[in-house]
Amino acid sequence: MKITAKAPANIAFIKYWGKKDEKLRLPANGSISMNLSEVFTTTTVEFDNKLKNDTVKIDGRYVKDREKLRVVNHLERIRKIAKVKKRARVESKNNFPRGTGIASSASGFAALTLAASKAAGLNLSEKELSVLARMGSGSACRSIPDGFVEWKIGNTSGSSYAHSLHPANYWSVCDVVAIVGEKKKEVSSTRGHTIANSSPFYKTRISGMREKVSGLKKALKNKDFTKFGEIVEEDAINMHAVMMTSSPPLFYWSPETIELSLEVKSWRHKGIECYFTIDAGPNMHIICKERDVLRINRKLKNVKAVRRVIINKSAIGVRVV
Amino acid sequence: MKITAKAPANIAFIKYWGKKDEKLRLPANGSISMNLSEVFTTTTVEFDNKLKNDTVKIDGRYVKDREKLRVVNHLERIRKIAKVKKRARVESKNNFPRGTGIASSASGFAALTLAASKAAGLNLSEKELSVLARMGSGSACRSIPDGFVEWKIGNTSGSSYAHSLHPANYWSVCDVVAIVGEKKKEVSSTRGHTIANSSPFYKTRISGMREKVSGLKKALKNKDFTKFGEIVEEDAINMHAVMMTSSPPLFYWSPETIELSLEVKSWRHKGIECYFTIDAGPNMHIICKERDVLRINRKLKNVKAVRRVIINKSAIGVRVV
């Protein structure tokens, strides 16, 4: 069977940084995210007994080495569950540049998990898909369920998965992504996670996360945009403070990241309520209300460093297409 | 008597951020700095019984309100010790722009302390001058002694002062200051110190300082430039991580700060051993060996954002001129 699945990228409001258990791939803290409507990966998987090896094509190019191995390892997990021996033909397309701070591994592994498991004849539950996606790439588990999503830490592999807190149409919060860099990052987030605990501030960050997660869930529940935005912005800065004090220091910011953070603060000062968040890359995610999207978009057009703007609403999770 | 004193600004290799005792003005951690040869304040003080009030002229302009009050309060301390009633005429000149991250308050209060105490007929020891300068502005105590300086925390006002670790000619380390912004900063460092402990990372920073201070002293003693530079750069990032996670967040970085930090890392990668440090402002202090100063200066000429470069060697402390 040949199956195609489409999965959204997600933007974390409370960030995942560092693992509690490297072997079981359990995160050190719970995280909360929103699926993005306009940035996604579409992946087709077909198992074929005529194939000698798995083939993996991403954005029109056959990948190899470490990039391929990560996909093949994920196919192995699925073959093991499905008791399938056949090799697979994987073809994946992102509608956004990879390695620039938009989580391509999240949408990628979410789409791969659904497409490959269906193509292998499995009919997994949302929870099972989320657990499996997590094993490919931590934050991929959050691209499985719909809308606003929480990833609970868990104590075992089977209990560390994401679930939907609210459906996509629950709240019209937008994520306006200002793309400033399309260069691949020097240190992957996968590697970054493993050195997170080298920051002297890491333990303190982790010890405050439970409270932050419950604060954000409350703000979401009350649709309290101010509280929500404040927690989101503060957590992003907190994570980057940990990153830049780790050993070696991880600087994901570019000059444009600072420029845009100053812009966001000045717009907010002028009455356009918006907040920023930053993933492991230089792009700015500007979190705002739907009614302010066009004003912000116009303002971004005047910022020379911005190469492209992507306006996202909240979206459903992974689906077969 | 009319006395003129000249005091250098200083660059901290281990930063002072936050106070252990607000009332006694004791720092939360020990710090280490170097006096700068090319950035200084020259201050003339004359007590005059014809004056009804103190007058304070800084860079050609009579200052008032809070800016004046801080100087008048310092004169009061000195009048009290000297048992002088007369008002003073203070005239101060900086050879660099104020409020841009070069510590004008350090050189300013160091020069004021020596000029005013001499003009009031006092003949204070280096230690007494350092204690007194500290009361005007914490880091001013480090601009009193010569060369490479350590400020010990102390437990009482009288035991919190700076002393020279090594004379100015001990080691030919340079501080190449790349001026990128001449705008006054939004939050003064005086205010910043009082909110330092609102950062979740503040306690962790402080608890690691004793070890960092002794590590830097050892690197200085051994003239181990690599170890020295690594500690300097790491401590600056650590302090800014605390600043940006405080409440409200303090961002002293501009886009150019990030741009230059990336430049410094790339030069280092190419074999020019240099490290950066950043005070409470956007300017970059590039710490390098004397032999690399001209190469770095040439490279800085190609960085559009750099408005001005100041090449500093280590310098003597405050002097009557």
Which keywords apply here?
homodimer; 8-stranded mixed sheet; 4-stranded antiparallel sheet; 9 helices; 14 strands; globular
What does this structure look like?
Two copies of one chain form a homodimer. The first copy, chain A, is 36% helix and 26% strand. Chain A has 321 residues and is an alpha+beta fold. In chain A, the strands form three sheets. In chain A, strands 1, 4, 5, 6, 7, 8, 9 and 14 form an eight-stranded mixed sheet that branches. In chain A, strand 11 (274-277) and strand 12 form a beta hairpin. The first copy, chain A, is globular. The two termini of chain A are 14 Å apart. The mean pLDDT of chain A is 94. At the A-B interface, helix 5, helix 7 and helix 8 of A face helix 5, helix 7 and helix 8 of B.
The outline of chain A comes out as globular
Q: Which structural class matches the secondary elements of chain A? A: alpha+beta
Mean pLDDT of chain A: 94
Radius of gyration of chain A: 19 Å
Count of helix runs of chain A: 9
Largest sheet of chain A: 8 strands, mixed
- End-to-end separation of chain A in angstroms reads 14 Å
Uncertain parts of chain A: none
Largest interface: A-B, 24 and 24 residues
Helix content of chain A: 25-40%
Oligomer classification: homodimer
Strand content of chain A: 25-35%
Reading the helices and strands of chain A in chain order gives EEEEEEHEHHEEEHHHHHEEHEE
The count of strands of chain A amounts to 14
